[in-house]
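Please review this one:
***
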Amino acid sequence: MLNRYPLWKYLLILLVLVVGLIYSLPNLYPEDPAVQISSVRGDVTLDERQLERFERALTDAGIEIETSEISNTGILIRLADTDDQLKARDIIADMVGDDTVVALNLAESTPDWLESLAASPMTLGLDLRGGVHFLLEVDMDAAVTQRLEVNASAMREMLRDERIRYRDTEVDDRTLTLSFADEEDRDAARQLIARQFPDFDYRNLDEGRGAALEMTLTDQAVNEIEDYAINQNLTTLRNRVNELGVAEPLVQRQGPNRIVVELPGVQDTAAAKRVVGATANLEFRLEARPDTPEHETEEFGFRNNEARTATLMRDVIITGDSVSNASRSFDENGRPQVNIDLDGTGGTQMNRATRTNIGRNMAVLYIEHNTRTRTVIEDGQEVEVREPYTERGIISLATIQSALGNSFRITGLESPTEAAELALLLRSGSLAAPIYFVQERTIGPSLGQENIDRGVMSVQIGLLLVVLFMLVRYKVFGVIANLALGINLVLLIAAMSMLGATLTLPGIAGIVLTLGMAVDANVLIFERIREELRSGLSVQQAIHAGYERAFTSIIDANITTLLVALILFSIGTGPVKGFAVTLSLGILSSMFTALLVSRAMVNLTYGGKPVKKLWI
């Protein structure tokens, strides 16, 4: 029988509509203005007593509190009014120390029953919602120094293998100096090292009773090191941002040694800064034997007990660069630990170092680069000067029981939060050089609320005009087309919410274009039905022929547009990608609603009924 769907097809359409409605509902619940209180390093515990102090202070200041909650990441206080956010932040900031950050936030208000179904609202881009902006500076001098330290360790190992005696190594600026007992050892070392390290200019030095070899990096080598440092840091920061789960972030180079990071929708600067700006790395070293020469050892304290120290070898077995994967877990005593997998080279080096040192202690050295700011007087004016410094501390010192391979674990961490963040940093890769925060701020919508309101209004006006046109032009069929159009919009919003796509202002333009294209498919169908009626077909035959014969034209038109949208997404960036995403999803949803949903409604209205005239 013409114009009748089987029951399974109606049920399938109904299922899609119900799922689309459920996953679009979270967008009806606006986010609450809130204040987030959290630890700078994630190791400060915030409890109910402190929450009561904050709530009492805000209430005394006349600020209305909606709700408050404590989680593993800190305290979240939801406010009734956006205008109270800044005032509340300043009040709480005066009550906490430097180890705690108070940040503005927008907290989701999705009901629990929707969250249990993994339903969440669309992610808004930086232009619509705002977020955090960081300007980072890469320490190029430290990059060169780190490379020289690595070279010095390799040279010392090479000299020991060849039984060439040396006294000491010294790194200064871009120069590495090796001291020897006599010129014979110096000349043999120069001949050996020069073959393996061609990036240095070599010069012999005479020192009283001994001799020295001075090696200075060439200008080309320094430039290559600096380029590698900035590019490697860009890659690492992108990996870290991806681990944060931020939609459509911006991580790009600015000038010779700076990087801009913008995270849409993130207003908790403490959490973002801990992950993005962390410069932590690990070094695995053997504990020094009592008879080891002093110039081959270094003494370090423990992170959780500064009074306790250990003397370690200067040579590094491997660093965090060799880690291929890392995850947090708990040991048999319930204490946090990090499970580590090494790459092939790192596993080989670890196995070679441990199989010949069973029974000896091996330390895990935690290295973190930070800055401190102090105010000095220059030319009668106060100027803030940033001083970089490096903290090194042992987090684990354990006896090697057997030869280690590609997998092992690190214990001795202070908290589960520290273990999770260390695992994240090791997974995403270490920085090639320290980075410092030059500028950090929470920013509002970059395009301004007025432009956002205009974008939303354009969708509303476009939808209204299309609805009126379809009603006037196609009457009853216009009502069906408008219902399908509304369903199309619901499905589009649901798809963007489920896929985690980011809505930007160009994305709103894509939605407006989608609405027009969705109606275009219905116009083709309805005009085709009119033609079939004029050619003398019956009502049922005209409806059937209209949908069947317009199908090819609709598919051709939408597929070509979809291909263009996919090309835009693959080669575009930022706003162009946002437009392409909404356009692609809109094309797919409009084809479904125009070809299936509207057909189902027409079938239910006219299918199998003795209709003599169509209001079209």
